[in-house]
Amino acid sequence: MEETLSDIRRAFGDSLRQIEDLRKIGGAPIAPLANQIQYHLTSMLDLAVSKDPLPAQYKNLTKIFKQQIIEKLNRAFPVGENVQRVSSYFDLTANFQTWDRALNHLEGLCQIANSFLPKRVDFRLENDGIVLLLEPSENANAQSCRKKAYQMTQALFEQKAILSYQVTENNNSAQIELRIRNSILETKDLSFCVGDLNFDPIFSNYVSDINSLASLGEHHIVKIDKNSKVSLQNSISEQDSLNATILHLPFLFRPLSIIIFGEGKLQATHAKNSRVELFELFK
User: Fold this and answer.
1) Domains, the chain
2) pLDDT tens digits, 245-261
């Protein structure tokens, strides 16, 4: 067994080096995709080397969870006059914790989603959380969920999870994505490292650049300089982005950007560097 785990870790290390080569060749535009690939690869490693075996009834439990999730979706979005379609997808590689959290978080997320009076709802259970893709109605009142969204966002911070919000254009119509992403990596072998600082790997999913944030205008910004000093500001300058990693967290109604001095990448954690809990900044 030890030899098998050693082989898995060796293959993981080789993959990290290949992804790092891809990141260097592709530069900044490829970084978010490379980080995402690396994050999911690490999720697989974490599951493979876990000392806690899956329950013997895991397959039966996921069937029950799936049925309960579908029932919750049907109650929250009854197909009829306004809702035209509700669909669902389940990633069967998701671990037990992700299924359990999906069931616990879904009702609150559906309450927020209903503020948009969705015509179509697509639910996805992914290996690190859940996603609701909505086609909103023209007369939606998004402001009505402001208090609920804030309360849920704060509660999720306590569980090291992030609720994000994004609007995209799809076939000439708006599409809203509500996503809850869990920090499911409990391993101490990996961190999102920026300079001499180590952060929870979940934040590698939110790497951005100054051009992507240009349309946002003024918003809440946290800056962590090379001396690890934290300051607050409301705009990002070209000077700020030099030799820095920019994270953008698209919270509902209150987007936040974090500028951290140094190059950010997922890598093995160095014992001399302690992990910085960025979640503490949001409370």
Assistant:
1) 2-49+187-282 (no CATH), 58-182 (3.30.565)
2) 989 998 887 888 888 88
